Amino acid sequence: MPETPAATVWQEVCGHINAAAFGPVIGALESGAVLERLLDAPEGREVDALAYETGTRSGLLHLAARLFELEGLGCRSGNLADCRTNWRLTQAGKKRVEGGVREALDRGECSSRLAQAMARIYRGRATSELAKDNLATLVWSEELAVLGQAGWAERRDGLWRLNERGNTALPMAAQFLYTDGYLPLLARAPELILGQTPYDLGRDGEGEETHVDRETDIAFSGLVFRHTCKDAFLELALPLFSSPARPSAVVDTGAGDGELLLVLAEALRQNGLPPVTMIAVEFNEVARSVAAHRLAEAGARHLAIRGDIGAPDAIAEALSTHGIDMADACHVSKSVIHNRSVTGEAEAVRDPVFEASLAVHLDQQARPLTAARMAGDLVEHFRRWLPWTRRHGMITIEAHSVDPKLVARAAATPILSMEITHGLSLQHLVEPAFHRRAAALAGFRSLAMRDLQTGHVGAPLMTCDHLLPI
Fold first, then answer.
1. Domain residue limits, the chain
2. What is the pLDDT of residue 218?
3. What is the pTM of this model?
């Protein structure tokens, strides 16, 4: 069956999103002589030894080996869970490397410019106007010229105008927000991969992150929640509020732009349920400010405070100063457990589920961690939340790592880009089974679970679980 125009353009969109992230990684591996050594080793190389020889950062070389596997360009073998990994190029990988990396670098740069242009168009709410081919083509001529380089626009009557592929791509413009937000990090990929200094993502004079445009990132995260997670979340959350022993508040730790709290507040209203206090807990000042503004604008009873997912006791203390009992709240989080700080100091926890992990695990200095060490950290994380979740539990929405072979066989996904940005920014993706087993060993039972985004590769890319202490 021939592909529809939308399916074809979606492949192009994913290709550009991935190229923008993969190009800088390829460039770093080339300049560090990593690819040259892999070409000279038909049986592959042990990753840590290769890192030592080339002066590259060991943890990020483990990440690179996984990235090549995601693309079908490489293969890993050995005891991956214990970081004893051999990396060799596949035939496709050898062909790509032997052909030179200039094409990958050029495409990465072109795709980065495209991400910026599409993100500006989306933020400028110009998608519908550009589709009408009116005066907006003059206002957005610079962006349309960039789209022209991607084959999505062409010059007619002296102006850049969208063609059929461009009109198909325009409704997908929001997909580029994620890439655009992480371009500062991607620009530093060579420095981070090749560097031997302490791993530092950087902060400005006011202590705010410089590796990501957080406002863009949380806007994209909110869109993902609304389009992918909303129904599953409400299915798990709403029954709590029709119970006589309903929570007095909802605490969203890592609230981002407040989208989850806004959706829940609206759902309570639509279902005739009394409102509760919506509490946005955010470590990041930009996100905290955006969430507070949106909740106030919606007329929701709310509070926004500073807090860290890894320090629930401190959150409880902060809430107590506002007269709020954290133990009487429903606790929720979206894509923030994997963004906790991991030192690697937790006691290792061995279990068949953890030993089967194919993910790359890193500490906060981008050093490789065994799966058992990462499991120990995650179990400890869940245990810290036990005292505060005994009444109403916690609902976790998490993004996950999947088997690279599933991704390599998939037609088109932006997973490569997600893994690169998560890895470089030290976010700790694990498989769904890994996540759930750690919660169980910590003392939680699952009241309900939902697997999300299973259609892309045949395995869930996200999960939504309602956990309650045993």
1. 1-198, 214-469
2. 94
3. 0.95
